[in-house]
């Protein structure tokens, strides 16, 4: 049964997934300003200098070693999604569930797949496999080439949060269709872009997004980017899903 949300909720996004794929790795939105758009979010930093997590109003950088640190607030991002997370839907995760199986549980929780969702899975993970992008130097290469250099990490028996956004397929090119999530451990020391995980026990929380505030960069590079490549699906698969 599909239901409609009863409350409007805005999700903020800076730039486009298709711009990132085209190698637009520098933006003009500071972490400081981004934090004003939400206490929860994911993204990356200029020059792809790590994966970004915003949790409880604090911003973290997850570098290519898998370690978390605090960025300067005047650092900029070329791509980020943020919102003020309100857990409107909540349930416990079935014990010892893989990412694939949990995706079905989450789908059942959604009132409709036609809205956007911020997603937070808090608990103990028997394993989390992540990747992190490596800081780039100009001239920038397209993302499909860059992510071949990613480093992967597997964290085992770790408490933390898998968090991100579930984006409808019709937003392809704007965002990453399906779930795009990052991991940060409970001690705020480790994490990365999530490729796979198994949750031992935990809680799933969802915040339904009905409004999208999209901010496009005012840079010459963005203005000149190719945002409609023929192989968009393939590029997203290669850079974000890595299967
Ligand atoms: Zn990511």
TrEMBL record:
SUPFAM superfamilies: AF0104/ALDC/Ptd012-like (SSF117856)
Keywords attached to this entry: Acetoin biosynthesis, Decarboxylase, Lyase
EC number(s) stated in the UniProt entry for this protein: 4.1.1.5
Gene3D superfamilies: Hypothetical protein, similar to alpha- acetolactate decarboxylase, domain 2 (3.30.1330.80)
Molecular-function GO term, any one: acetolactate decarboxylase activity
Catalytic reaction annotation: (2S)-2-acetolactate + H(+) = (R)-acetoin + CO2
Pathways involved: Polyol metabolism; (R,R)-butane-2,3-diol biosynthesis; (R,R)-butane-2,3-diol from pyruvate: step 2/3
Entry keyword annotation includes Endoplasmic reticulum: no
EC class (word): lyase
GO BP terms in the entry: acetoin biosynthetic process
Record keyword Mitochondrion present: no
Family statement drawn from the similarity comment of this UniProt entry: Belongs to the alpha-acetolactate decarboxylase family.
The protein's name: Alpha-acetolactate decarboxylase
Organism of origin: Corynebacterium heidelbergense
């Amino acid at each position: 049964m599909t239901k409609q949300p009863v409350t409007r909720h805005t999700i903020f996004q800076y730039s486009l997934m298709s711009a990132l794929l085209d190698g637009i790795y520098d933006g003009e939105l500071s972490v400081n300003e981004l934090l004003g758009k939400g206490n929860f979010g994911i993204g990356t930093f200029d020059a792809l200098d790590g994966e970004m997590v915003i949790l409880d109003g604090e911003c973290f950088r997850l570098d290519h070693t898998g370690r978390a640190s605090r960025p300067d607030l005047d650092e900029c991002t070329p791509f980020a999604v943020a919102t003020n997370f309100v857990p409107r839907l909540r349930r416990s995760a079935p014990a010892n569930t893989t990412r694939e199986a949990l995706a079905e549980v989450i789908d059942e929780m959604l009132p409709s797949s036609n809205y956007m969702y911020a997603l937070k899975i808090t608990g103990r993970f028997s394993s989390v496999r992540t990747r992190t992008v490596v800081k780039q130097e100009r001239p920038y290469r397209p993302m499909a080439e860059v992510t071949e250099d990613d480093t992967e990490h597997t964290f085992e028996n770790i408490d933390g949060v898998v968090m991100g956004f579930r984006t409808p397929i019709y937003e392809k090119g704007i965002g990453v269709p399906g779930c795009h999530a990052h991991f940060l451990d409970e001690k705020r020391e480790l994490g990365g872009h999530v490729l796979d995980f198994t949750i031992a026990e935990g809680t799933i929380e969802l915040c339904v997004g009905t409004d999208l505030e999209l901010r496009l960069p005012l840079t010459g590079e963005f203005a000149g980017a190719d945002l409609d490549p023929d192989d968009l699906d393939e590029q997203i698969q290669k850079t974000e899903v890595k299967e």
